Sequence to fold (216 residues):
Amino acid sequence: MITDKSPLPEATGPCYQAVLLVGPPGVGKGTQGKMLAQIPGIFHISSGDMFRELDRNSKFGRIFQEYAGIGKLVPDDMTIKIWQDYMAAKIRDEVYNPKSDLLILDGIPRNITQANLMAPFVQVFKVIYMVCEDREVMFKRIRGRSLKEHRIDDAEELVVRYRWDVYKRETEPLIDYYPQERVRIVDANTIASDVLHQILSAIVPVQKKYFEPPVM
Fold:
């Protein structure tokens, strides 16, 4: 079994200034993240994209494959190490500039343990809490996505409902973890452009207050 007992790197690098996207499976975080990523001065990462971009032959890639191969999640401390390495690579490749780009984190932190591990490295300005009261609407969205994107795992009803339960148990408590004045509730049971408008109304003031204008 591959293990890595080394400590997390010291918080000597850049402090990432971020907004979190939080919401249950099927609420539309991925859709909103893709639209936000097209706006200059915003850099979006999802935990799924981060893991998919891992080189399978790298140390972290082998660790991910080992856990994914047996259907388990990568442990929290290792997930944050992978995230730190990923962010450093994006800075080196000059696709992300911490001084001018607001970081949108989607799917990470996944739980309070990860939030605590990330706290020395991230300043969270806002938590965008995407809500849809009708659970069946979200399940329908996931099933539709599975057909459109050929995601077989999303087509399994039991898997979808299991992910919902995991979200309620592990991720939703993040809403109470952060100061409530930073939490913005967004109604996700509407058209995508309306959801985007709600999100932008929360994050544009953050961009204007804390970031240099991006080079166009």
About this structure: The chain has ten helices and five strands. The mean pLDDT is 86. The chain has one domain: 16-209.
